[in-house]
Design a protein that fits this description.
With about 450 residues, the chain is α/β, with parallel strands linked by helices. It contains 20 helices and 14 strands. The chain has 3 domains: about 120 residues, Response regulator (Rossmann fold, 3-Layer(aba) Sandwich), CATH 3.40.50; about 170 residues, P-loop containing nucleotide triphosphate hydrolases (Rossmann fold, 3-Layer(aba) Sandwich); about 130 residues, Helicase, Ruva Protein, domain 3 (Orthogonal Bundle), CATH 1.10.8.60. It is about 50% helix and about 10% strand. Helix 3 links the parallel strand 3 and strand 4. The radius of gyration is 32 Å and the shape is elongated.
């Protein structure tokens, strides 16, 4: 464990450093309350041991201010004989325990051990709560495939780490949903989550949008604007399509990430921000860095932890779940009685490669629900381009459901291909992989009408 010792008596500090060091603790020292607060803001401590009576700042005030920084801060007070009432007051302010002078060395070691054990329990409880929150949050993200389960595991593991996170994936794979899940599963959940699409805001406006400005910074700056970094302080800022950020602005973003300070346009001083940054890209940032279109140093800053989202074609086993969800969603919204999807239509959806991923699937199902006439979404409700790609899957689904013979299966498949080509026999022969003579012979054999 790591312990901060606070006392204006340097001899007492050295005694505690030696005592705790021999028992295996790592220690740091501050000789007044303000120095202790400064150290606590930049370093994680499991326990603070402080004298009650110190110049500049008394131990009671230090307890209160430490717990403002960290509500779980554990503080052990050392008080001279005769100041028990003050010690009790400090306990009410949130101190972990107190020891009176003169003390036995064992008393310090026993209380230090108790505090470290309590800190460990607090962190374990926090971790378990985070996991529960993550599971609850993931109930709104549909995916039972192994690929998505790995994503969920990573999110649960990293949501409360202070590191920046880069989410990569094709358009429509749900990068913002994952970013929101990270926020909802973290200790910053009570703080804001602010998404910004870097590609949707003109370069001339993006800087002031992110970093803010002061009145008079430019012609239309009639009042101060804090900027999204400061608005997201205490929470998370999600920079979507970060690959589209201009190089000039990338330099300024890097400075904010390194210094954790923002200087609004027109301001003379920077301001501290406590904002965790999540970013996302549908392009390969490694390649952009190699081509000189994205700053390498910024890439390393953003890419401390990377989450790669699979394309929908890589998790086709999730398509039935997604389809069911979208049917229920759009049927309820349109007050339509649509109960599910036919096997051949689902087979077509599963065989399609979905270049637009979940977003394209959602729009496809919405269209089918709104324009369909039956209680089940059928193949006729799906777009023709999707059906043309999915003919083989549809025929196989129907064949399996109806227990077709090979004769029936070939006949059905040829019929579906002809239907998809609108009777164009040359195109049908090409899709079937036969010449026109063979196709005509099959049409005669299966008694197809012209």
């Amino acid at each position: 464990g790591r312990i901060l010792i606070v006392d204006d008596d340097r001899g007492m500090c050295q005694l505690l450093i030696d005592l705790l060091g021999e028992d295996g603790y790592e220690t740091d020292v501050a000789y007044d309350g303000q120095a202790a607060l400064d150290k606590y803001r930049t370093t994680r401590f499991d326990l603070t041991i402080t004298d009650l009576m110190m110049p500049k700042m008394r131990g009671i005030e230090l307890v209160q201010r430490l717990r403002e920084i960290d509500s779980g801060a554990l503080v052990l007070l050392i008080t001279a004989f005769g100041t028990i009432e003050s010690a009790v007051e400090a306990m009410r302010a949130g101190a972990f325990h107190y020891i009176t002078k003169p003390f036995h060395n064992d008393e310090i070691l026993i209380q230090a051990k108790r505090a470290i054990e309590q800190k460990t329990l607090q962190e374990e409880l926090k971790r378990l709560r985070t996991e529960v929150q993550a599971r609850n949050r993931f109930q709104n993200i549909i995916g039972q495939s192994a690929a998505m389960q790995r994503v969920f595991e990573i999110v649960a593991q990293v949501s409360d780490l202070p590191a920046n996170i880069l989410i990569e994936g094709e358009s429509g794979t749900g990068k913002e949903l994952i970013a929101r899940a990270i926020h909802s599963s973290s200790s910053r959940v009570s703080g804001p989550f602010i998404p910004v699409n870097c590609a949707a805001i003109p370069e001339t406006l993006l800087e002031s949008e992110l970093f803010g400005y002061v009145r008079g910074a430019f012609t239309d700056a009639r009042r101060d604007r804090p900027g999204l970094f400061r608005e997201a302080s205490g929470g998370m800022l999600f920079l979507d399509e970060i690959s589209e950020m201009p190089l000039t602005l990338q330099t300024k973003l890097l400075r904010v990430l390194e210094d954790k300070e923002v200087r609004p346009l027109g301001a003379n001083q920077s301001e501290k921000v406590d904002t965790r940054v999540l970013s996302a890209s549908n392009r390969n940032l490694d390649e952009l860095v190699r081509n000189g279109k994205f700053r390498q140093d910024l890439y390393y800053r953003l890419n401390v932890i990377r989450i790669e989202l699979p394309a929908l074609r890589q998790r086709s086993e999730d398509i039935p779940l997604l389809v069911r969800y979208f049917i229920e969603k759009f049927a309820a919204g349109a007050k339509r009685n649509v109960e599910g999807i036919q096997d051949d239509a689902l087979a077509a959806l599963k065989s399609y490669d979905w270049p637009g991923n979940i977003r394209e699937l959602e729009h496809t199902v919405e269209r089918a629900v709104l324009l369909g006439k039956g209680t089940l979404v059928g193949a006729e409700d799906l777009p023709t381009n999707l059906m043309a790609r999915g003919e083989s899957a549809i025929v196989l689904a129907q064949a399996f459901a109806k227990q077709f013979t090979l004769y029936d299966l070939e006949r059905e498949y040829i019929g579906k291909v002809l239907e998809s080509t609108k009777g164009n026999k040359t195109e049908a022969a090409r899709i079937l992989g036969v010449d026109r003579t063979t196709l005509y012979r099959k049409l005669e054999e299966y008694k197809f009408k012209d």
